[in-house]
Automatic annotation (TrEMBL):
SUPFAM superfamilies: Porins, Starch-binding domain-like. Belongs to the TonB-dependent receptor family. It is found in: Cell outer membrane. The keyword Glycoprotein does not apply. Keywords: Cell outer membrane, Membrane, Receptor, Signal, TonB box, Transmembrane, Transmembrane beta strand, Transport. Residues 309-775 form the TonB-dependent receptor-like beta-barrel domain. It is a multi-pass membrane protein. Residues 124-224 form the TonB-dependent receptor plug domain. This is TonB-dependent receptor. Residues 1-21 form the signal peptide. Its main location: membrane.
């Protein structure tokens, strides 16, 4: 279905809808019997299959707008006063309801309202919601929080600043999209990543596994991670500093200001990260020849060329919560990074002089308004970003894991190519990206909503390398990429919002053009020419979700989608700084995704509270894109379509707390991803598929987290939180289950054990935390036996300035 046809469908839905009956408004004030305004009173309206919730403002005022005429019950709850119920008929355009709350005879009134997390989980998608309030004071990275979530495995190639990608229920790489406030993170540049954003800047993290809600209008075939940053609700300024092992230092500051009279808002954040990453590595890829002609000897060595530095700042100015806009913010983001490169795609190739520098400038405009006209909500985001990247590799000296050139006591060995990773290079890349995202929602009534979501992304890259011969460099390369995704969806709530359904259709359009140098040679001559390549695709997908709440504690959910994932620009065009080769002919991925699960939460027995969430899933994928090492020495990466992969699995989460002081959570994830590609014999006859496990993919993980809070320790009003986390990853195949050299086929089972504490001083102005990571100092691997840091000690100080 073309995008034009989708617009026609949407227009038909709008034209075919007409409102019957009359609507009006409830308004009024709530006060205490002392005649003072009842601020932040929870108010619920029920009737005519409608449920609405709100809170009284600083003057005790409240409103319910656009309510169909009829009889309603309005409930008022306050912590200090008796709850009150009013039954009233709406039969005019405006109906005033004023209420006085009386002092409660009970010592305590229990008020229950759905949290943001519950509202997200009830929409039928397989989703984890990670709250970061407690983690914000720890010496912890966002990737570590994600690694503790059911069904999520963060694949990182080293210490702070190293490349990371995410595995959700067997789907990995760019099949899993990452967003910042609903905006694809690729626009922010590599130095503004989940690896560098401090948890203190984040309000919550939403992890969608498999089917992704339509408002995240991107081609997220395997799932999505949406990071919701802190908004500005009051004038504040916070900062934190941390330091730890392997020369790790981090600092961040964030704050905001809002003028309550005119709505002018300014907010910003900044961070600095530094790490030497000089941790110890060992194993079958860390070997050296102690003298010329002698066999290799396995040693324990420190990484000596892996320094990482990044800085970034983000500022927004505009207006929030004014009559003409919920928000209108102009933003600028500046970030830069420089990083030494220690290895190739594996630890067998060691570098001592190769490094990369890059910086990103991004400018944005963000607008949102509910009821811009009656029942119509609109939001839009537009950004332009420019990334400048330079790769420096001009010295041919060979290095070993001893940290100095090979043949150290004689003349150093040199690479015949003239540099450590091939030909000498000072390549400069300029990547320019334009991104727009538009969401329009029309509420047919309180229970039915039609949405239109559109994402447009364009990418261009200009490259220049002064180290190339002049004639070759004169053959200018070109890379252009355009992606457009249009989504139309319909959402329904029924049976007092117990049943929620959503259906959607997606149109995917992509066009990419490249002009790249190619080298052809024979025994006597070599010819360099430009090869042009243009590929387009226009595809359609669809899906839906459903959930039913049998009670406030038990919800069953399911979702399904025919999903398409378009190759990303970096996958197609490559990245010299990341040792990633171009893969010009990559095809889109296709997958049929299914989820079915339930949540049984808030089971209480005296002071004990229990909860359980389970999710089963199936992924039937064609042309899965995977990033794999290439070449005889596995120095570089390349992306390839690996064919048909069938995955089925389950993840389970258990939660327990005692008296809101002792918290325990456990999650387990298991999936079985098998290769269903058919091979053929010499006569062209099909042979039974191999059914091998998907290479380099951990398929069984467990995570256990225990936390204990102690109040009023040393000082009244203080809180001491102590916590431990245990992660187990079962052994998995590094490559094919039947191929690979001795000692390289399997990455062994891994256990990571962390512990720490955080002390928050009275008034919550200052917090101090101390963490010990990988206490057992075990070898930890993610990607092709690239070892991660061993035991490390980290401290962090967080304080509120305003």
């Amino acid at each position: 279905m073309s995008q034009f046809n989708l617009y026609v469908v949407l227009l038909g839905l709008f034209l075919s809808y007409s409102a019957f009956g009359q609507n009006g408004n409830f308004y009024g004030k709530v006060k205490y019997d002392s005649n003072e305004p009842a601020v932040a009173t929870f108010i619920a309206l029920k009737g005519n299959s409608i449920t609405k919730e709100t809170n009284s403002n600083i003057n005790g005022s409240f409103t319910f707008k656009d309510i169909p005429y009829g009889e309603y019950t309005i409930l008022f709850y306050s912590l200090n006063d008796q709850p009150k119920t009013v039954t009233i008929t709406l039969d005019s355009k405006n109906k005033e309801v004023n209420v006085t709350l009386e002092v409660a005879a009970l010592d305590e009134v229990l008020v229950r309202s759905k949290t943001v997390q519950q509202k997200i989980e009830e929409k039928g998608f397989a989703v984890n919601v990670i709250e970061t309030k407690d983690a914000a004071i720890q010496s912890i990275q966002v990737n570590e929080l994600l690694d503790q979530s059911a069904g999520v495995r963060v694949r990182q190639s080293g210490g702070l600043g190293s490349h990371a990608h995410y595995n959700l229920n067997g789907m990995t790489g760019n099949s899993v999209k990452v967003f910042i406030d609903g905006v694809p993170i690729r626009n922010f540049g590599p130095s503004f990543s989940l690896n560098s954003i401090p948890p203190s800047l984040i309000k919550r993290i939403e992890v969608y596994k498999g089917v992704v809600p339509p408002h995240l209008s991107d081609d997220a075939m395997g799932g999505a991670i949406n990071v919701v940053l802190n908004g500005i609700t009051k004038n504040e300024l916070k900062a934190s500093v941390s330091a730890g092992s392997f020369g790790t230092y981090r600092a961040d500051v964030n704050g905001g200001f809002r003028n309550n009279k005119n709505g002018f808002t300014a907010r910003g954040s900044a961070f600095v990260n530094y790490a030497d990453n000089d941790y110890e590595v060992w194993g079958d890829q860390v070997a050296v020849a102690l003298s010329a002609g002698t066999p290799d000897v396995y040693i324990r060595a420190k990484r000596f060329h892996d320094r990482y530095r990044s800085q970034g700042g983000k500022a927004e100015f505009g207006y929030t919560h004014v009559p003409w806009a919920d928000k209108l913010l102009a933003g600028v983001l500046l970030s830069n990074m420089d990083q030494q490169i220690q290895t190739g795609a594996t630890m067998e190739i060691v570098y001592g002089n190769r490094f990369t520098e890059q910086n990103t400038n991004m400018y944005s405009l963000d607008y949102a308004k509910k009821d811009i006209i009656k029942n119509l909500d609109v939001s839009a985001f537009a950004s332009y970003s420019r990334l400048n990247r330079k790769t420096i590799d001009t010295i041919a000296t060979q290095y070993s894991w001893l940290g100095h050139p090979t043949s150290y006591y004689n003349d150093p060995d040199v690479w015949a190519t003239g540099a450590e990773a091939g030909n000498p290079t000072l390549q400069k890349d300029i990547d320019q990206t334009i991104n727009t995202r538009t969401n329009v929602a029309y509420h047919l009534n309180d229970n039915n909503t039609v949405q239109l979501n559109h994402l447009l992304n364009t990418f261009t890259r200009d490259s220049d390398d002064p180290m190339l011969p002049a004639a070759e460099n004169a053959l200018r390369e070109e890379r252009e990429y355009l992606k457009s995704i249009l989504t139309v969806s319909f959402e329904n709530k029924a049976f007092d919002e117990k049943l929620r359904t959503s259906v959607f259709g997606k149109s995917y359009y992509m066009n990419r053009t490249s002009k790249l140098r190619t080298r052809s040679s024979n025994s006597s001559t070599a010819t360099i020419s430009i090869e042009e390549n243009t590929i387009s695709s226009n595809e359609f997908g669809f899906g839906g979700s459903i959930s039913y709440s049998f009670s406030p504690k038990l919800t069953v959910f399911g979702s399904a989608e025919k999903a398409i994932r378009l190759p990303e620009a970096n996958e197609v065009f490559g990245n010299v700084a990341a040792n990633l080769n171009a893969s010009i002919n990559l095809k889109p991925e296709h997958s049929n995704n299914y989820n079915l699960g339930f949540t049984y939460d808030n089971l209480q027995f005296k002071k004990h509270t229990f909860g359980v969430t389970a999710n089963g899933f199936i992924r039937d994928t064609d042309d899965l894109i995977m990033q794999l090492p290439t070449g005889s020495n596995e120095e570089f990466f390349a992306n390839s379509n690996v064919g048909k992969i069938y995955t089925e699995g389950v993840d389970l989460t258990l939660n327990y707390n005692y008296n809101e002081a002792l918290f325990f959570s456990a999650n387990t994830s298991f999936f079985n991803a098998r290769d269903y590609n058919v091979t053929y014999d010499v006569n062209g006859n099909p042979i039974t598929p191999s059914y091998e496990r998907l290479a380099n993919t951990p398929y069984f993980t467990m995570n256990y987290n225990l936390k204990f809070n102690t109040k009023n320790l040393i000082q009244k009003g203080s809180t001491l939180s102590s916590y431990t986390n245990l992660l187990y990853v079962h052994e998995f195949f590094r490559g094919s289950s039947v191929l690979g050299g001795s000692g390289k086929t399997i990455i062994p089972s891994q256990v990571s054990f962390d512990a720490g504490f955080a002390y928050t001083f009275p008034k919550n102005k200052v917090s101090f935390s101390f963490d010990v990571k990988n206490i057992l100092n075990n070898q930890l691997f993610d990607n092709y036996a690239l070892q991660k840091p061993g035991r490390g000690f980290y401290g962090k100080l967080t304080f509120s300035i305003l």
